[in-house]
Amino acid sequence: MQPDSTGKIKARAKIENGDTIIISYMDDIDIFADTTNKPKPVFENKRQERKFNRLVYNLKKVYPYAKLAKTKLNEMNRQYLTLKTEKERKEFAKKTEKEIRDQFEQELVNLTVTQGRLLIKLIDRETGKTSYELVKEFRGTFSAIFWQTLARLFGSNLKTKYDAEGEDQVIEDILLAIDAGMI
């Protein structure tokens, strides 16, 4: 709730059994049980446990890059929208790409294929746009097609979407636990 021009906050309320109850809507929040008593995931075998632990390791490695991508994209969008001509926008996109390459290329080149695929999904989760859409938006259709073709040669897909309630639910649970400091 935001104050109006007089500094007062208007709120909805209802009267129930003589009591006034304020009605307010809040954003969704995640609530986790006490982590000290929380049972660990149960695995059918050691292989499943190793696979889960490897996923946690890989997510911890690439998740910061996805969060950084979101921050950089927001900064870039703010600046990009202030530019007047298409020429200025292209120059800005190239300059920004060079800065990002200089800063992160060596680290990203050292990611495994699995980590790269996770990063593609997490970029969609964090930005709301697939990697393909981002490349197309800032570098053009030709560049997007080129990078998509290259990704497909290595068994990846820049158009991969993140599905938090479907096939990526385990990933989502792990990320929420990471954000909550539980993992």
Structure description:
By secondary structure, the chain is mainly alpha-helical. The protein has one domain (46-179). 60% of the residues lie in helices and 5% in strands. The protein is built from 6 helices and 2 strands, in the order ββαααααα. The chain has helices at 46-82, 86-109, 113-127, 131-139, 141-153, 169-179; strands spanning 12-16, 19-23. The chain has a two-stranded antiparallel ribbon. The longest helix is centred in the middle third of the chain and has 37 residues, at 46-82. The chain is flat. The chain starts with 11 loop residues before the first strand and ends with a helix. The model has no long low-confidence stretch (mean pLDDT 84).
- Please list the strands of the largest sheet in the order they lie side by side: 1-2
Apparent shape: flat
Count of helix runs: 6
- Spatial separation of the terminal alpha carbons: 34 Å
How many discrete domains? Answer: 1
**Helical percentage:** 55-70%
Order of helices and strands: EEHHHHHH
β-sheet strand percentage: 5-15%
The gyration radius over C-alpha positions equals: 22 Å
Low-confidence stretches: none
Structural class: mainly alpha
Main sheet attributes: strand count, strand direction, barrel closure: 2 strands, antiparallel
Number of strands: 2
Mean pLDDT: 84
